[in-house]
Design a protein that fits this description.
By secondary structure, the chain is mostly helical. It contains 21 helices and four strands. It has helices at residues 3-13, 27-57, 59-62, 75-96, 99-103, 105-115, 117-126, 134-143, 145-161, 167-179, 181-192, 221-224, 227-240, 251-254, 261-291, 303-322, 324-344, 355-392, 397-423, 425-440, 444-466; strands at residues 18-19, 206-210, 213-217, 243-244. It is a multi-pass membrane protein.
Length: 474
């Protein structure tokens, strides 16, 4: 078949749910049809992922208000309600990372997005019932982990649509704007709980005890507000997204990544970038309140995850232009310096520290987590493509085509699995703060441990990917 005929074949199939002819590395095909299809899938994926992050992290807002509306939960119970979505979301990512090649990207995006409505609606009902037990709240919090799981499948899916040279930017946009769901939720929930948005359908207000007085609040809207959008983008995914036939693979086909050294190495690096982003996002408000109680700094905490999310596409773009290993290596250097800066401005002994110095260093740290998220995710497809091209060299055109397919499948599975491991940062970092403060009176010990970890990541990046004659330069 000639290139012209192949392009015609592609044109005949662009509007079908299952794409049986998908060649993003073919420049003529990409410019004629592929770019438009990939963009359509990306811009449905992004808001779907944003909703997932909003539902995943919503307990960080809801838990702070439960006792104020009449519940009697201990501090430890409230902590678990904020931590459980992180634990379940990270665990679900392990399974979700393999779902796209099994079910197809269109089907799984629709199914996984619709699943978010379960905890959103149940939460809305539960906070209105004063007899709701901690156990029931805990189950809802676990189900909010659906949102955390969605990231793995979303990233794996988008990786199939773009050519290698553009995957960093595309994955950065998907993840960065999707991660913005944390900040969107933090902005939205305090506003919507003040109004009867859904009328009688949304239920009656509850009385909130605050600032020495009382006022009516609609805490149920923290869950309900997302439901119309969840339904909208479920339908959009089902109608306008696509499955790629060549991306099909069983779990057994994808499980080969567990024998790939670079899967584990890149997972280690991504724990340092995304694990830091989500962990710092979860722990930042409490750390501010604990270390600088005289400063009303918690109101600025949302800026951290917002900056980290918005800068992530820049990290992917920089990696496309400068090379993923180069960007990642120097990004870890800045991360280490930023954590030292945070420690320097902490209160110590008779010194009250400097809130604004501390805050500025954390903003730098959030920027580096975002850039690192984008650059490491760009490295993964390049690494697997390079390895498979080496293994297939000199074995003929059919072997080379098979190498491309295998590289795409393995890199997609690695993108998902590494994000699963990294998501445990949502629990580990805040818990590390708490342990360090209880044992030493401050968080510095935890921060020094993070610095030590970042040094190992610096060494891994340099040895395997960045130095001259590295095993897989990228």
């Amino acid at each position: 078949m000639t290139t012209a005929n192949a392009t015609v074949t592609g044109a005949e199939k662009v509007d079908k749910p299952v794409l049986t002819d998908w060649r993003p590395e073919d420049k003529e095909f990409w410019e004629a049809h592929g770019k438009r299809i990939a963009s359509r899938n990306l811009w449905i994926s992004i808001p779907s992922l944003l909703l997932a992050f909003a539902v995943w992290m919503v307990w960080s807002m809801v838990a702070t208000r439960l006792n104020s509306i009449g519940f009697d939960l201990t501090t430890n119970q409230l902590f678990w309600l904020t931590a459980l979505p992180g634990l379940s979301g990270a665990t679900l990512r392990i399974f979700y990372s393999f779902m796209v090649p099994i079910f197809g990207g269109r089907r799984w995006t629709a199914i996984s997005t619709l699943s978010l409505a379960i905890p959103a609606v149940w939460m809305g009902l539960a906070v209105q019932d004063p007899t709701t037990t901690f156990a029931e709240f805990a189950i809802i919090a676990v189900l909010c982990g659906f949102g955390g799981g969605n990231f793995a499948s979303s990233m794996a899916n988008i990786s199939f649509f773009y050519p290698k040279a553009q995957q960093g930017t595309a994955l950065g946009l998907n993840a960065g704007l999707g991660n913005l769901g944390v900040s969107v939720m933090q902005f939205t929930v305090p506003i919507v709980i003040g109004y009867s948005i859904f009328g009688a359908l949304g239920g009656d207000p509850v009385t909130l005890q605050a600032d020495g007085g009382t006022r009516e609040t609609y805490l149920q809207n923290a869950g309900y507000i997302w439901v119309p959008f969840i339904l909208l983008f479920t339908v959009a995914a089902w109608i306008w997204m696509n499955d790629i036939a060549s991306a099909k693979a069983s779990f057994k086909d994808q499980a080969v990544i567990f024998r790939r050294k670079h899967q584990w190495l890149m997972s280690w690096l991504y724990i340092a970038t995304f694990g830091s982003f989500i962990g710092y996002s979860a722990g930042f408000p409490l750390l501010i309140a604990n270390q600088f109680p005289a400063v009303e700094g918690v109101q600025y905490a949302f800026l951290g995850p917002m900056v980290g999310a918005l800068i992530r596409p820049v990290g992917g773009w920089m990696a496309d232009k400068l090379g993923g290993a180069s960007v990642t290596f120097w990004n870890f250097v800045v991360m280490i310096a930023a954590v030292f800066g945070v420690i320097y401005f902490l209160p110590l002994g008779d010194s009250a520290g400097s809130f604004w110095g501390f805050f500025a260093m954390f903003m730098v740290l959030f920027v580096t987590t975002g850039i690192g998220n984008g650059s490491t995710f760009r490295m993964i497809p390049v690494i697997f493509r390079t390895q498979h091209e080496r293994w297939s060299a000199g074995k003929g055109g059919q072997a080379e085509q098979e190498a491309v397919r295998n590289a795409n499948k393995e890199s997609a599975a690695t993108l998902g699995f590494s994000s699963a491991l990294a998501a445990y940062g949502a629990f580990i970092i805040p818990k590390s703060y708490g342990t360090a403060i209880s044992l030493t009176g401050g968080p510095a010990a935890a921060l020094y441990a993070f610095i030590a970890f970042y040094f190992t990541c610096l060494a891994v990046t340099w040895w395997f990917y960045y130095r001259k004659n590295a095993e897989v330069p990228c």
